[in-house]
Amino acid sequence: MSPEIGTHQLESDTAGDMNFKETELTLALPGESRTLKEMNGGTIGTKRGFLETVDLNLGSPRADCSDKDRNESENDVLTAAKPPAAKAQVVGWPPVRDYRKNAMKSCKYVKVAVDGAPYLRKVNLEMYNSYEQLLSALEDMFSCFTIRNYLNERKMVNGVENVPTYEDKDGDWMMLGDVPWKMFVESCKRLRLMKSSEANGLAPRTPSKCSSTSG
Amino acid sequence: MNYFPDEVLEHVFDFVTSSRDRNALSQVCKSWYRIESSSRQKVFIGNCYAISPERVIERFPALKSIALKGKPHFADFNLVPHEWGGFVYPWIEAFARNRVGLEELRLKRMVVSDDSLELLSRSFANFKSLVLVSCEGFTTDGLAAIAANCRCLRELDLQENEVEDHRGHWLSCFHDSHTSLVSLNFACLKGDINLGVLERLVARSPNLRSLRLNRAVPFDTLQKILMQSPNLVDLGVGSYVHDPDSETYDKLVTAIEKCKSVRSLSGFLDVAPHCLPAFHSICPNLTSLNLSYAPGIQGGELTKLIRHCRKLQRLWILDCIGDKGLEVVASTCKDLQELRVFPSDPYIGHAAVTEEGLVAISSGCPKLHSILYFCQQMTNAALITVAKNCPNFIRFRLCILDPTKPDAVTQQPLDEGFGAIVHSCRGLRRLSLTGLLTDQVFLYIGMYAEQLEMLSIAFAGDSDKGMQYVLNGCKRLRKLEIRDSPFGNGALLMDVGKYEAMRSLWMSSCEVTLGGCKTLAKKMPRLNVEIMNENEQTDFIFDDAQKVDKMYLYRTLAGQRKDAPDFVWTL
């Protein structure tokens, strides 16, 4: 009996029509989607699956960033066993206190690589409020190294000797400064201070998916 | 025992300290009840709505120390609407009015207003200890009142509270003559602290043994404080970011080396991992280490630190330690008794540990008795192995991030795995389950989990039978909390008398209907059956067949509570 539950859920979720029905925003009270399941031939019990709860709580998934849109269309055909973009939030899941969640949230450590340096550093992006603050912190962090290893007077002056770049969520290497600070913090996965000579093939300074305004 | 004078009995009872034991004493006979009640100083109230403060005072006139719990456990996960209740003010007001000689107050999941703290600080001349865990509703102004007025204060311990921070002046409210501090924990405060005031406070507190700092306390202040307090037993580091090549760092290393009494270490809320070696000298003495708020400590730095901690009994960490890191723990910490592995990225839904880490720990740490483990996946085979390796579990809480995930290898439900746990661990008192689970697992729980007191269920089971097995079998059950599981009226109403032998039952997003709850409430007048409406709307559903979104019932001698908000309906 039990293995059927798992596969049944997969079946009902991937069956073309039912997929859309279940992700449709309804104002139905808890239990409605179970009726749909029963209609679908499910006599296995009225357990509300985790997935159903996810669907009921998703709100309007399309209102957000384009990331989600892309993921959803890709997942249409694949088993929709995973919530869209794995970002769906069920109330109270995972069972972690807000206090702890907030404490984790305000720690966004990313690796910083500097061309020529033998080791990387890590910075907590949440500790800064602007690009200026971040860049000056990076200058401090790497100035010691520079002075120790480069006997000449060359300092890390960003924008002249080195180009600060970052890898975003999509894996692209971008120049710092194009998007609002908060959006940058959200999407930055790692930083690299690139030698200017190498910095020629970077993504052009055109606004990408979410243009202008505050993050 | 009739021929012993009361004083002798009282003296004997003094040696019995736990609430449970004293409760047992009081039930032996009337005179024991009388003597015990009149001499009990430390009282524990597991549900602040189960009894009125007046009644507590009446029964325990010698009351000096009280612990109160407010909101149900699932409030931690936002399942309980915000204004539900759990106010401490009426208790403090009643104690003040009745001139209780209150010295210690310990609160968990309660709403504590600044007014309550103010009243507390002014009403009890001998007040010594305030411990607030997961509370809310107060600001640093309330703390200022405590600091200023509680001249005998020894302990101020704030654990994971939501405090509105009005900046650091509250610390200055401790008088210059206040030298009695033993324990100070303000790690959860978000705002700035007057560092000079802090240093002076520490300098004039020779008895200080426990100090947990917040993020606003920087490296050099830590160094100065440690120089002043080499006798610390418990240290919570705030901010730990510095240049390891500096003089301050060297001074810190010296200071730490002198702190030979430190047994418990936590914090590192901001951390430069390359500065961690400064702590290696005290690691061998540590019995408790909490790095669960230090995501900045990862990989090699983390395992290096742990390798020095051979005496560890309690470890709280983030899952970024990975299965490999847990293997290091397993081979290093042979005395480990309690392990908690938290998700470092709860929003993404991906954990960095699997069943392998758990198995490694279980085979390396035979003394393990408590575990909380957030993981990516689990298997029956792993759970069966863990059950065999560690038959001494008292608390076993497993949280797979995808809560209905089956056995990662066989795709079967995890019934057999958890069944092995309850079968092997005869002393199990607390259990939380996740994964694909059918009624079968509850059959096992009902059959084997004889000592079980608290059970947490989410997205599990197939039918009423599941819940019935549990209610039938677990004779010692006190707290049952269930969410998103298909248990309905059949299970709810099977044995209504059982709920008077329990503290509470929580059911949300299950199959119970309004009619079922009404029936229960009618049969059991000494239960409060509270229904909470989704979205906190005020218009209730009047159709008995309608499913209830959230139900919380608890036994009580205090009747329906008068402070319930609109969205709570007590049947």
Automatic annotation (TrEMBL), chain A:
Location of this chain's protein in the cell: Nucleus
Entry similarity comment: Belongs to the Aux/IAA family.
Domain PB1: residue ranges: 107-196
UniProt keyword Repressor, yes or no: yes
GO cellular component: nucleus
The protein's name in its UniProt record: Auxin-responsive protein
Functional description taken from the UniProt entry: Aux/IAA proteins are short-lived transcriptional factors that function as repressors of early auxin response genes at low auxin concentrations. Repression is thought to result from the interaction with auxin response factors (ARFs), proteins that bind to the auxin-responsive promoter element (AuxRE). Formation of heterodimers with ARF proteins may alter their ability to modulate early auxin response genes expression.
GO biological process, one term: regulation of DNA-templated transcription
Keywords: Auxin signaling pathway, Nucleus, Repressor, Transcription, Transcription regulation
Gene3D superfamilies in UniProt: Phosphatidylinositol 3-kinase Catalytic Subunit, Chain A, domain 1 (3.10.20.90)
InterPro entries assigned: AUX/IAA_dom, AUX_IAA, PB1-like
Organism: Hevea brasiliensis
UniProtKB/TrEMBL annotation, chain B:
Keyword Mitochondrion: no
Entry keyword tRNA-binding: no
Domain F-box: 4-45
Record-annotated membrane-spanning stretches: none
SUPFAM superfamilies xrefs: RNI-like (SSF52047)
Keywords: Auxin signaling pathway
Signal peptide extent: none
Protein name, UniProt field: F-box domain-containing protein
